Structure formats: C-alpha cells, structure tokens
Amino acid sequence: MESVFAVEKLTTPLEEREDIVTVKGLNKWFGDLHVLKNVNLSVKQGEVVVVLGPSGSGKSTFIRTLNALEEFQDGKIIVDGINLTNDLRNIEEIRKETGMVFQSFNLFPHMTILKNISLAPIWVRKWKKQKAEQIALELLERVGIPEQANKYPGQLSGGQQQRVAIARALAMRPKIMLFDEPTSALDPEMVKEVLDVMKRLAESGMTMLVVTHEMGFARQVADRIVLFDHGEIIESGSPEQIFDNPQHERTKLFLAQIL
Amino acid sequence: MEEMKLEANKELNILKRSSSQIGSLQWLKKNLFSSWSNVLLTIISAVVTGYILFNTFQFIFTADWSVIAVNFRLLMIGQFPVAEIWRVWTILGVLTVLLGLSWGLWKGSMAHVAVSIGAIMLIMVAMPFIQMSTRLILGGNIVLLLLTFFIGTKLPKLKIPVIAVWLLYIPLTIFILNGFGVLAPVSSNIWGGFLLTLLIASVAIVISFPIGLLLALGRRSSLPVIKYFCVIYIEFIRGIPLITVLFIGQLMIPLFLGSGVEISNVLRAMIGMTLFSAAYLAENIRGGLQSLPRGQYEAAQALGLNKTYMMTFVILPQAIRAVIPACVGQFISIFKDTSLVAIVSLTDLLGMGQKLVANPEFLGKQMEVFVFVGFVYFIFCYLMSHVSRRLEVSLGAGHR
C-alpha cells in the first residue's frame, strides 16, 4: 500500500537503518549563556524521536539548529548527508529536505491556504503550478480539511491552521519533519486533531523530531525519548525505559512534576 | 381580558409611532439641549458656523470668477504653445484609455480611480467658462472612458499590454510634450500650470517608491557598506528642508555634470523631489518591515525559500500593505510640496497663480485665484486619500 503521506516506508528493523541526522559535540552560546552543551544525537531513517525537558532546557533551540534557524558555534551537524556549514547553499539544501512546524503556526496571512501550501513547491522545487496545487489539495485531504483550500488562515481555527502548517511542510516532500511544540498554542479541544495527524504521519514512516509536552503522544508514538536539561541530554531511551524506569535524578524530578 | 390586551397593544403602537415621529426632536434634545451649558454651546457654535457659511457663500457668489475663466488655460497648462495643444490632449486621451481598460480589467480600486477622474472631467464640462472645443474634447474623453471600460470587461487578454503601457506612460508623456526632435521641440522651460504640477508629482511618486523600497531593504542589510550608505542618505535627506534640496538640485547638479551637459530646470526639480521623497518612503516601508513577526521570516526560511523569494512573496506584500496609509500620506505630501518649485522659478499651478495676481490687469483678485488653486489641490489630494482607503479595504481580504 502506498503510504498516505508519500513517504518511503522501510521494513528493515530500526537498528539496521542508516542515520539520517547526525549531531556530534554540538555547542551553542547566547552571549555568555551556554545553551547547548556537547549534544550528541543520531536519528535513524523513519525513527520518531520525542524531545522532552523543562522549559528553558534548550530543546527548542536544539531542533532549530538542525535547519539553521539558529547558529551554532562548535560541533558538527549532518542532515541527509549534507554537512551544515555557513554556506548558504548548504543551508538551503538542508531546509529543502526538512519540514518544520512551529508553535505559532506561522502561516502567511495574506495568502489562501492553497497558496500557502503550494508556494515553496512552485518556487523552490520548481514544480508546475498545476502539480503543486494538486499535491496541496491531496495533502489537505489527508489532514482532513479539503474544504478550506480557498480560505485565508485568519478564517481557520487554531487546530486547522496547525494542520495546514503540517501540510505546507509536507508539500516540499521532506525527508525529516521537525515539530517545535506544535500543540502548545492550541486550545485543549484542538490538541487531539493535530496529534492524530502527527500520529498517522509517524505510522507512515516519516522521520520525526518532536519537541512537545504531550506525554501521551510521547509514550504512544515515540521510538526513542530524549531528555534535555540545562542544555544537555541527560537521558535517552525507549518510552518504557524513560517513563517506567528512569535512571537520572533530574529525569525522575521532571516526570514527577508533569505526570 | 382580551380587550385589555388589545387596548394595551394599541397604546404601545401609538407610542411606537409617535416615538419615530418625534425621534429627531428627541435626538436634538438629548444631544444638543440636555443641559444649560449644552444649550449655550449649541447656540454659540450654530452662530459661528452660520456666520462662516454665510460669508463663504457670499464670497463664492459675489466673487469675480472671470479671472479664472480668462486664464483657465494658463492655469492648467501654462504657456504651452496653443498650436501644440493637441499633444496635451493626446496624453490625456491615452490616460483615459488606460484608465478605462484598467477599470474593466481589474475593477476594484481601479474603478474608483476611473470614476473619480471621469467625474472631474464631467465637472469641468459643466463649468460655464470652458471653451466649446475643450468641452467637446472632455466629453469625448468621458465617452472614451466608458467605451474602453466595456472593451476591458470583454477582453481579459489585454492585462499584460495594459500594464506595459502604464509603465511606459510617464516616459511617453515626457516624450510627447518635449518632442525630442521627432515633434517640434517644446522646451520644458515653458511647461507650466497644473500640467507641470502633475508631471513633477507623478514622476516623484512613481520613481521614489522603488528607490525608497531599496533604501529600506538596504538599511536592514547585513552588509555594512550598503547599510551605512542607506542610513547616511536617509538621515541626511531627512535632516534638510525640501527647499534646500531643490536649491541644491538647481545649483549643484549642473556643477557636478560640468558645462557640457544641459539639464532642464524641470528635470532638476523632479530629481530633487524624487530623492527627497525616497528617504521618507524608505522610513515608512522600514516601519512595515519591522511590524512583521519573526515567525514569518522563519517559516519562509524553513521552507527553503531563498532571500529574494522570501522578500517578494512573503515579507514585502505584508509590509507594504501595512504601510499603505503612511505611504499615501507621503504621496499627498509630495503632491502638495510640488508647489515649492515656484521658488526655483518654475511656474506650476501655484506659481502661475502668483504670476496672475502680480499682473496689474487682475489687481485685487488674489482671493479668487488662490481659492481656485486650493480647490484644485484639494480635489486631487482627496482623490488620492479616497483611493488609498479603498485599496486598504480591497487588499485587506483575509488579513488579520
């Protein structure tokens, strides 16, 4: 069966797959503030990694460095075989292959939903307008709001806007999806519709890095959970390991505070 | 029981009816005569307003407007040779055709521009002192406007050619007016009146906008050379009065270019106004750029759009939309400031007015001349601000 989001679904076990994201010895400072301390992480193709941690722990900053929305001072990031340097061409190549969903949606308010989704495929991927719009409509169908195509973002609810934002990122046919607290700005009754879309995306085999506070989602969907505190990874492991048998004191403290 | 209800209903109906009848009276009472101090204020302001209105009307109906009638051509086109007047009519005709087609093709804000210009022509046709030939040509233009409107609605293919002709319109106008060897030369030194006002204002508005846009982008550039050039330019221009810029234009431009190159007074004034207005527009546009949340830049970048695409499709459309009112304010200001070119010995509408007043033949007619000049300025400034309001509404779709 063709996967719903046109991702190539691998059947090999996770351990045998290749790394699609590799981060080695990553360090970042905001002035004197050391926000990322020697972060090492690799993500396999099709793996879903959920990044947890208290606010201010550097988890959002971390995933924003992966598509160069934040600079870093030391270390190495390789995304889909491309070494992330200051070279603008490298940065644009990586951004083509990584979709990003923001906490505050960041849809373009002056364009219709259809234009929002088809803009980058037309100008960056150089697809024909017709093809790009066709794909945009299909994606809207998949995220459950095909009837909104000709409306403007301001006319949609928060949950609908976030689903459009996911469709917009997917329209570029990325290999990796980054989610930066995608449900934190939503009203409680709209959280589920967005998480459902993300869950289906994960099932279809997309590589995902998700920063979130949704513990249910983390336990159910994640292949691996990574815990950030004070700019470093303090623990990582499967959901069962992290939730049922945490090793680190600060992990226990964090879980005690939110569960 | 039933009867009582009916009775009550009837009374209610009477009450309702009378309340609508005496509605305006009650409104007056409530808003204008609610207390003694209010009554006093109402009476005083009524007397003052009445006095001003009475005197205004008395002036309008007793004034000797013949000074305008006799000099109407001078006020409109200055000393443009009578034999060559067909050139002015030609450029007006081209404008009419463009407006009519655009009205038919795009509707919306273009409809407001076209209808307003048509209305101005209609008013002029109705003026008692207009020559019959002028009246016929203006009437013909109105018919042409409506005709091209219908053509526009029928032929959507014309969009691109019409845009092309719009872009060429100002160079074309200057070419037709000047002649440049193809037609008999009419030196720009004798261009004058409202024609000159319109020419200088439109050149300044149309050219200063892209320059201002580049300056605004340059000021936010990460390259220090570009950034500081833009900052220094903007702050320098904003630090000196327009008159100074105009004088600098008159005296310095010939100095820079050396004796070999002759640049007409009019062109120098246009350059001065354009450079001046670009600095102010740049600051307006920069305000719009800064009003956008950082998330818009980040979303565009995350999608892989390069800087040019990001600016063209995401940032500038939103930024410019946010500053339309401020920019139109600047356009109106430029339009009125063209009257300063009278100081560097050009005879625009106001300059022509001053010359008329100085003529002993029209002694004591200052009021009539300046009221007329002010009226013309008002009509066009009001038109601009009206169109800008429509533009905001029509562009505001889905924005919020």
Automatic annotation (TrEMBL), chain A:
The keyword ATP-binding applies. SMART domains: AAA. PANTHER family: AMINO ACID IMPORT ATP-BINDING PROTEIN (PTHR43166), PHOSPHONATES IMPORT ATP-BINDING PROTEIN PHNC (PTHR43166:SF4). Keywords: ATP-binding, Nucleotide-binding, Transport. PROSITE patterns: ABC_TRANSPORTER_1, ABC_TRANSPORTER_2. SUPFAM superfamilies: P-loop containing nucleoside triphosphate hydrolases (SSF52540). Residues 21-255 form the ABC transporter domain. InterPro entries: AAA+_ATPase (IPR003593), ABC_ATPase_HisP-typ (IPR030679), ABC_transporter-like_ATP-bd (IPR003439), ABC_transporter-like_CS (IPR017871), MetN_ABC_transporter-like (IPR050086), P-loop_NTPase (IPR027417). Belongs to the ABC transporter superfamily. This is Arginine ABC transporter ATP-binding protein. It comes from the Bacteria. GO terms for molecular function: ABC-type amino acid transporter activity; ATP binding; ATP hydrolysis activity.
Automatic annotation (TrEMBL), chain B:
It is found in: Cell membrane. GO terms for cellular component: ATP-binding cassette (ABC) transporter complex. It is a multi-pass membrane protein. Residues 194-388 form the ABC transmembrane type-1 domain. Keywords: Cell membrane, Membrane, Transmembrane, Transmembrane helix, Transport. The keyword Lyase does not apply. It comes from the Bacteria. One of its GO terms (biological process) is amino acid transport. The chain crosses the membrane at residues 35-54, 86-106, 113-130, 136-155, 162-184, 190-216, 228-253, 265-282, 369-387. One of its GO terms (molecular function) is transmembrane transporter activity. Pfam families: BPD_transp_1. Belongs to the binding-protein-dependent transport system permease family. This is Polar amino acid ABC transporter permease. It comes from Robertmurraya siralis.
